[in-house]
Every structure is written in C-alpha cells, then in structure tokens.
Write a structure and sequence with these properties.
With 308 residues, the chain is mainly alpha-helical. It is 61% helix and 3% strand. The chain is built from 10 helices and 4 strands, in the order H-H-H-H-H-H-E-E-E-H-H-E-H-H. The strands form 2 sheets. A two-stranded antiparallel ribbon has the order 1-4. Helix 6 runs parallel beside helix 10, helix 7 crosses helix 9 and helix 8 crosses helix 9. The longest helix has 28 residues. The termini are far apart.
Length: 308
Amino acid sequence: MAAAMTQLQAPTTASSSNRRGKRSSSSYSSTTSPWLAQNPSKRWGELFFLLYTPFWLTLCLGIVVPFKLYENFKELEYLLLALVSAVPSFLIPLLFVGKADKGISWKDRYWVKASLWIVLFSYVGNYFWTHYFFTVLGASYTFPSWRMNNVPHTTFLLTHVCFLFYHVTSNMTLRRLRYSLSHLPVKLRWLMEGVWILSLSYFIAYLETLAISNFPYYDFADRDAMYKVGSLFYAIYFIVSFPMFLRIDEKPGDEWRLPRVAVDALGAAMLVTIILDLWRIFLGPIISISETKQCLQSGLPWFPEHKP
C-alpha cells in the first residue's frame, strides 16, 4: 500500500500552501480510462479509498475474525479496532496531500466531500436504520461495546470505511456502464443502469452478510432468511445512495460545495428511511420473531412495541 500511495500523493510544501485556494478542482482533464473520474481531485480520492480498503479489510476480516482475537476483546478493544480502521482514512489524505489536491483549498478536495457525505449517511444508517435490522430482520449485536441509541460505537466507525469502499466501487462501475451504453437510446440506458444498480446493491448487501458470518456476535434469528430476503432490505440503502453519491463533482463545471454535499446526503438518508418504514408497515418482519428470539434490542419510538 505504501508503494502505491507514493505514486498517488506528494507531501504538502510551503509553496503549495501559498497557492492553496487559488486553483479550483473544477479543472477537469480527459482520462483514457472510462472507469476513472475526469475531475483530478475526484480521481485521486477514489483511487486512495480503493487502495486504503485492503488495510482495514485485512485487519478485520483477515486477522481479527479468523484468529478469533475478538474473544479477548472488551469495550475498549472493539473501539480501538474501529478507530484504527477508520481514522487513517481521514489522516492520510490530510497529512499527505495528493498531487491533484495541491493548491486546492481543503474544502474543495473530493475526499473531504466524499467523507462528509458518507459520514452523514452512515451515521443516520447506524443511529436509525439499525433498529429496523433489530425489528424487521431479527438482528442482534451481543459483543461488549459502548453504545449510542443501543448501537455499538464500533459499527459507526466501521460502517464509514465499508461504505466508502462500496460507493467508490459503484462510482467506477456506473461510470464504465454509462460509457458502454452511451450509443443506446436514453430510456434503454436508464433501464439498464437501474438494473445494474439493483443488482450491485443486492450483491454487496449479500456479500457483506456472508463475509461477517464467521463473527458470532452479530447474529440473526434466521440467517438463511437474512441472506435471501434481508439482503434485499439492506440493498435499499444502496439503491438510493449509489446514484446520488456518484453525482458529487462528476459533471465538468458542476463543482459541489460542502453545504450541498451535506444536504444531499441527508436527503438520501431521508428517502431510505421512508422506504424502510414502508417495508416495516406493509411487509413486516421477514420471519416470525418470538420475544425470546428478538435479540433483546430496543427499537425506535415509532415502533408499535414502544408505544407510551
């Protein structure tokens, strides 16, 4: 990873700090690859997030889980694991400014905008939507952890790096798909793009559920039902977020500011919340969950079980 990052980044110098803010990241350049963004700052940011992924993924799923190190973890160890996984995704691009971001104000750099969008979206997802997992999908967290709204702090941090990886992957594949379909009629392009978003969303939701199946302290009342139907419920997150996240700094001349990024992320989160609650109301839980099998988790105030 260090060798790859050397090719992507350059240290901040005094001369570059003097130029910062004078050059806008809206200076787009043509790229030979239909997978990569035209915006240099966005292209660098996406590649950084991709190259960063093996670090936290190997730490969590390549070391901690297979060697069962978590059996000796308490609240502090779980929190430290999450911090070590997530914090460098902010510190590395902040301390080692990429070549594409030299001379650009920090608030105009793509990695800052992408991080803000994911921070807000994933915070809402953990704070609110996790309770739909408890109530609709029969999920439970049983590992020791400090919590906010009965959701482990660890998941807030790990979700951030997970979602960065998912959304950058979606960006690249959607960009490549649009390039390949550019000769087709508009309605057909929309249809095929919608099919791809639905398929990718379900695949990622299913793959994540499968990937953490060896961690015994995140469980489901019926894991088979979670794989098949629960993954579709989880995919709703990405069906909404993937096309919305792609829009950040994607079109030449349409450079996003941080307030717009924040409003867009919260708008996406609200839409997901509405769809999830419609599922809860009209479709209900994916299985019949008994009182003893319902994870011992409290839900949100609008759930019937928590009427005053």
